[in-house]
Write a structure and sequence with these properties.
It contains five helices and 21 strands. The chain is mainly β and 383 residues long. A hairpin with a 2-residue loop joins strand 15 and strand 16.
């Protein structure tokens, strides 16, 4: 029987904090994130193909939300937004880390996020995705992996002749005809626009899909922080031919913020749960993802189902750029807290501080009422 499933963490914030003892009568009002409020910035144009925003103040991104497309007539509008992005806002474990400017997608009236919203469809649907760039500052397009679509809907401006300019809208028809977990992203000046945050997950549930006890979407990415800083008007230079990643994220956050109950994406389980993880690589480097003390089975790659006869257990799966690996495991370990991280160990750092970066974790509910878990929550900013 399915117990709960979502993109962010599997339990509510109240359940999460109640288990740690951080939630009480006097603590309830203080259980907010410590993300700093937007500050005024003076933006000057950068010497690149696209000019940064002239808006003097910006809000912050929110965590990616799942959009059930079937519940809204298989239609969604993605707006382009210029916002700030708090990767790890605490002064702990190598923080704070913040991008002064990202280009985020906003689904309908939800909040903008990096990664963008998780667009979830059912096999056989015909999805209408409107890219609303009416308040944008640069040209954009949308390209969807994992869909056999009409030529004009491929989203590549140089081969389709379609570019959504600032002040314009365009609707793409995306058939949900390849079941599985996929990626979407802007395909205008792709080398910059993905690196500014314009990417997200496109999920197509096959007919008769049975959800597991727990299900999570985890998008990993490495960043060169010079690009968002340059686009925000700072006096730095970025060369895509000399890209030097220095920030490493899971769902847009670096550890320990990845374990935050609202802002992060902890994998919360109970003993015996069947867990399904959709790992998506939106970066430009391969990331070998390793889960401690559990055995993973790769069941799907880029929407292709792995035949049962070809499946085997492992604890590392190497996800190449733009690849999607769906893995499953049973929560049958000694109840505790177990890291899941990139095994390029320099990717598990915040600057020179270790551990941090591209590190999340499996948290057993049975282990949440422990001193070490409460300490981790303090580091993550869950007060």
């Amino acid at each position: 029987m399915t117990k709960r499933h979502d993109a962010a963490g599997g339990v509510s914030r109240r359940e999460y904090l109640a288990a740690t003892g951080l939630l009480g009568g006097s603590a309830l009002a203080g259980c907010t994130t410590t993300t700093r409020q937007p500050a005024a910035v003076n933006v000057q144009p950068a010497n690149v193909d696209e000019e940064p925003t002239s808006t003097p103040t910006r809000g912050y991104t929110a965590p990616p939300q799942e959009v059930d497309l079937a519940a809204q007539n298989d239609e969604v509008t993605l707006r382009t937004r210029h916002v700030r992005h708090a990767v790890h806002p605490e002064e702990t474990m190598g923080g704070p880390i913040e991008f002064p400017l990202v280009w985020a997608f906003q689904a309908d009236d939800r909040e903008p996020s990096v990664p963008g919203p998780i667009l979830r469809a059912r096999e056989g649907a015909e999805v209408k995705v409107t890219l609303d760039n009416t308040e944008g500052h640069a040209p954009h397009t949308l390209h969807f992996h994992g869909s056999r679509k009409a030529w004009k809907d491929d989203g590549v401006p140089s081969t389709t002749g379609i570019t959504v300019m600032p002040g314009e809208k365009h609707t793409y028809t995306i058939p949900a005809n390849v079941p599985g977990t996929h990626l979407y992203h802007c395909h205008f000046q792709t080398h910059r626009h993905i690196d500014m945050g314009m990417y997200g997950v496109f999920r197509v549930d096959p007919k008769g899909y049975e959800r597991p006890d727990r299900e999570h979407f985890l998008t990993v990415k490495e960043w060169d922080s010079r690009l968002p800083r340059m686009m925000a008007g700072e006096d730095v230079e970025f060369d895509p031919r000399n890209r030097r990643p220095d920030v490493f994220t899971v769902n847009g956050k670096s550890a320990p913020r990845t374990l935050h109950p609202e802002d992060g994406s902890p994998i919360v389980v109970k003993q015996g749960d069947r867990v399904r993880l959709h790992l998506v690589n939106a970066g430009y480097m391969s990331h070998p993802m390793h889960l401690h003390n559990h055995r993973l089975t790769l069941v799907e790659r880029d929407g292709g189902v792995i035949p049962e006869v070809a499946r085997y257990q492992m604890d590392v799966t190497n996800v190449a750029p733009a690849q999607r690996h769906t893995v499953e495991f049973v929560a049958d370990a000694d109840p505790g807290i177990y890291p899941m991280h990139c095994h390029k160990v320099d990717h598990v750092m915040n600057g020179s501080f270790y551990p941090g970066g591209m590190l999340g974790g499996v948290v057993y509910e049975e282990a949440m009422d422990t001193d070490i878990f409460r300490e981790l929550m303090e580091y993550a900013g869950a007060r």
